């Protein structure tokens, strides 16, 4: 990331099987760490498959949180 951040983006980073075993706070913490590393630019949060309703709501709740960081 350090060398190529101006040329690349991070997509996802939240595996489905990982999300199914983690608590929402852990999902938030991992997402926030990536978001802060990228300074809010070049990070597209997501998961590459089907997630539970709870995990989906956890993900979309991050949109409001990250909007405040910008």
- Beta-sheet strand percentage? 5-15%
Tally of alpha and pi helices: 3
Regarding quaternary structure, what we see is single chain
Question: What does the radius of gyration come to?
Answer: 12 Å
Span between N and C termini?
A: 20 Å
Regions with little confidence, pLDDT below 50 for 5+ residues:
none
* Secondary-structure element pattern, one letter each: EHHEH
Which word captures the global form? globular
Largest sheet: 2 strands, parallel
Q: How much is the average pLDDT?
A: 75
Structural class: mainly alpha
Arrangement of strands in the largest sheet? 1-2
Q: Work out the number of β strands.
A: 2
Relative helix content? 40-55%
Secondary structure: elements and pairs:
Blueprint lengths: L9 E2 L4 H6 L2 H14 L5 E2 L8 H17 L1
Parallel strand pairs: 1-2
Write out key terms for the chains shown.
single chain; 3 helices; 2 strands; about 70 residues; two-stranded parallel ribbon; globular
Structure description:
The chain has 70 residues and is mainly α. It is 53% helix and 6% strand. The chain has three helices and two strands. The radius of gyration is 12 Å and the shape is globular. The mean pLDDT is 75.
In short:
The protein has 70 residues and is mainly α. The chain has helices at residues 16-21, 24-37, 53-69, and strands at 10-11, 43-44.
